[in-house]
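Q: Convert this sequence to structure tokens.
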Amino acid sequence: MTRARYHIRFSKTGPLRWISHRDLLRLWERLFHRIDLKLAMSEGFHPKPRMNFPSALALGTASLDELLELELTEPLDPQELAGRLQADQQPGLGILQVTAVPEGSAKAKLKSTTYNLPIPESDRAALLAEIEALRSRDTIEIKRKDKTLVFRLAAEIEHLAVEDGVLVFRCTPDQGASLRPTDLIQELKITHVTDSGQFLTRTRVELEHEFESSRCVTGQMTS
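A:
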């Protein structure tokens, strides 16, 4: 059977940031059926579309750059696939780019994710002090349920700074459990910022292997 893989970059904004990862999967499945795509399916008693998110987005976090890897049984020109997706106009879901994955390429593997969080001016001095204190440490301990997890900061956080009043950080996946953006916010003692109305936005999902733009088509975000 002929199969073709694609990387679909998209934004998830507005009220759509409040849907869970599972609901997002269902949203994509319904969208694919509406635009009549020939989806490759998994094997077994309960076949599911062959699609993969290298990094699931947490509930309540907006994103300007998510990535979905999709497999079809019918090759399509990336421009045609992008046009079908954009024409659906799902509120809050912006189709940014469709890339044809070269045959024989490995499954999408996450390299890093970048986030930002606006910080009120009154909290910036204290946050800078917390960042400096964190940089002096080798590890960070996070309690999840009945477990205490230890993360190596050098392996988990590639960049951490306040830029023009915005906290910007880039996470790199380590083996095993990974440090969550909410873990970092808690460690920096700024959970009150998110409690008072500000929210995290993921601005970039970077893969270990990206493909050239000559195989891509870029569109505009829908509102």
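The chain is about 25% helix and 35% strand.
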